[in-house]
Amino acid sequence: MNGWEPSDRGVSFHFGADVLETFLCKNSLSLIVRAHQVVEDGYEFFNRRSLVTLFSAPNYCGQVSTQMITYESGKYGGVCFFPQFDNAGAIMSVSDDLTCSFTILPVRKKMEICVFFGAEIVVYFCTTGA
Predict the structure, then answer these.
(1) What DSSP assignment string belongs to 63-128?
(2) Largest CA distance in the chain
(3) Does 75 map to a domain?
(4) Which residue range forms the structural domain that includes residue 47?
(5) Is residue 10 in some structural domain?
(6) pTM score > 0.85 for this model?
(7) At 53, is the secondary structure helix, strand, or coil?
């Protein structure tokens, strides 16, 4: 991709390597570090390592799933929260000589938190996989 394109969500833009190279040159930079975009391994390089995306939250974002659970005594509502992404996180360190290194925060076991309500409120924490 070259230039600028609107994102799929319509709230931001994607940019190509040409835009990045122009910005780096104009500002006498060799690397841009950005954050707040989920990447699978916690960090991800772009364009010959001139941009790195850093994301520090493993298993990012809870997703809500509403279910109806039927018991012999009647129907109870239930809400389950589980991680939406299977990503690692990362922390970037920069040494005095500007060498970058990364510490990986591994993917945690998925935890599902279920709350069922009706005659009483019950909360379950269950591991759903590695």
Answers:
(1) EEEEEEEEETTEEEEEEEEEES----EEEEEE-TT--EEEEEEPPPPEEEEEEEESSS-EEEEEEE
(2) 70
(3) yes
(4) 31-129
(5) no
(6) no
(7) strand
